[in-house]
Specification:
Layout (H helix, E strand, L loop, with lengths): L1 H27 L25 H19 L5 H27 L7 H19 L14 E3 L3 E5 L1 H23 L5 H22 L16 H22 L8 H18 L6 H4 L1 H19 L11 H7 L4 H30 L1
Helix pairs in contact: 1-2, 1-7, 2-3, 2-7, 2-8, 3-4, 3-7, 3-8, 4-5, 5-8, 5-10, 6-7, 6-8, 6-12
Length: about 350
């Protein structure tokens, strides 16, 4: 638990202190956010707000994770490093996307093909590597079996597993990206989900088959180190939220949203809670579905809209809801999904105990 607390505290301190430094640096370089003209008019006042703040979150997470292992004089686990690889890789894709937007002064950064292609390449490397490096008990970071709350009897095989991991990584990263449209919305929701994965990692460690053998023990590699990773994200996101809450002094940009989404997918895969992520991250799923419904309805009806604007949070903006009201209410929804997911996770263990 010392490592978990160290990761959270160090990441929080680094994030809350480094973010204002990043704000001054980005303002000096004129790296400001571009605002879509077809979006809510209330967003026009945000034009020029520094973006790419997600880089601070990534640095804070790496600092917190590294310090946690330095304090305990322990080596990082393969599972933890794989999740961080996913985070850094997707963060780099988001950084390039943000930089192109700012440099070319347009709301579109990387073209869809190269952006999805880069995300896919990173996800495939992660998935292939996660099936290697077994520990003394023979557990690899990921499993070819489809998982809900633990591995199920449904075995995908290596090829289908890689395809499934690709879907999860791109889906989660783009889900957080779509949610990141209002001050503090995505950051606050991510804090809750990462907090849930901290608890899940600690619980799986305490109920691991090496420590507490039994019918309900968890056969997972490196659960405690995954809790350390998740705790580092909790601290980093909390620190960033201090500056990202309305009125935001900085935005995370695609640098942050792609990295955070990738972290959620990575944690779900290596903790054997793949489908549970749909519940824990229910807000992200809901907002992603709203975009898919909007596009599908638009095409099916020859130009009619199901919502006033997608993603869903902008629909309520155009209905007249205040931005802070939307953020708080969506945070409540995110918290309800997280509570439901943790309840399902614990109930499954109780039933099987």
């Amino acid at each position: 638990m010392i490592a978990v607390l160290t990761a959270a505290v160090v990441a929080l301190v680094v994030s809350i202190l480094a973010t204002p430094v990043a704000i001054r640096l980005l303002v000096r370089q004129n790296y400001g956010q571009l605002i879509r003209d077809d979006g809510p008019t209330s967003h026009h006042v945000k034009r020029g707000t520094p973006t790419m703040g997600g880089a601070v979150i990534i640095i804070a997470v790496l600092g917190g994770y590294g310090m946690a292992h330095l304090v305990r004089l322990s080596a990082p686990s393969v599972s933890g490093l794989l999740v961080l690889f996913l985070v850094v890789g997707l963060g780099a894709v988001g950084f390039v996307d943000d930089f192109i937007k700012i440099n070319k002064q347009r709301s579109l950064g990387l073209r869809t093909g190269p952006k999805i292609g880069a995300q896919a390449a990173i996800a495939v490397i992660f998935a292939v590597t996660a099936l290697r490096f077994p520990d003394e008990q023979g557990y690899t970071p990921a499993s070819e079996a489809l998982s809900v709350l633990r591995d199920t009897p449904v075995v995908l095989g290596p090829v289908l597993f890689v395809a499934w991991a690709l879907i999860m990584v791109t889906g989660a990263s783009n889900g957080v990206n779509l949610t990141d449209g209002l001050d503090g919305l995505a950051t606050g929701a991510c804090v809750m989900v990462f907090g849930a994965y901290t608890l899940i990692g600690v619980w799986q460690y305490n109920q691991s088959c090496q420590i507490a053998p039994g019918p309900s023990c968890y056969e997972i590699r490196d659960p405690l180190d995954l809790a350390v990773v998740a705790a580092a994200f909790v601290g980093a996101c909390f620190g960033f939220l201090w500056w990202n809450a309305a009125p935001a002094k900085i935005f995370m940009g695609d640098t942050g949203s792609l990295a955070l989404g990738g972290a959620l997918a990575g944690l779900a895969i290596v903790s054997r809670t793949e489908l549970l992520l749909l519940v824990l991250g229910g807000l992200f799923a809901l907002i992603t579905v709203s975009v898919a419904l909007q596009v599908g309805w638009f095409k099916a009806t020859g130009g009619k809209r199901l919502f006033r604007m997608a993603p869903l949070q902008h629909h309520f903006e155009l209905k007249g809801w205040a931005e802070v009201t939307i953020v708080i209410r969506f945070w409540i929804i995110a918290g309800m999904f997280v509570a439901l997911g943790l309840g399902v996770f614990y109930a499954e263990w109780v039933v099987g105990a």
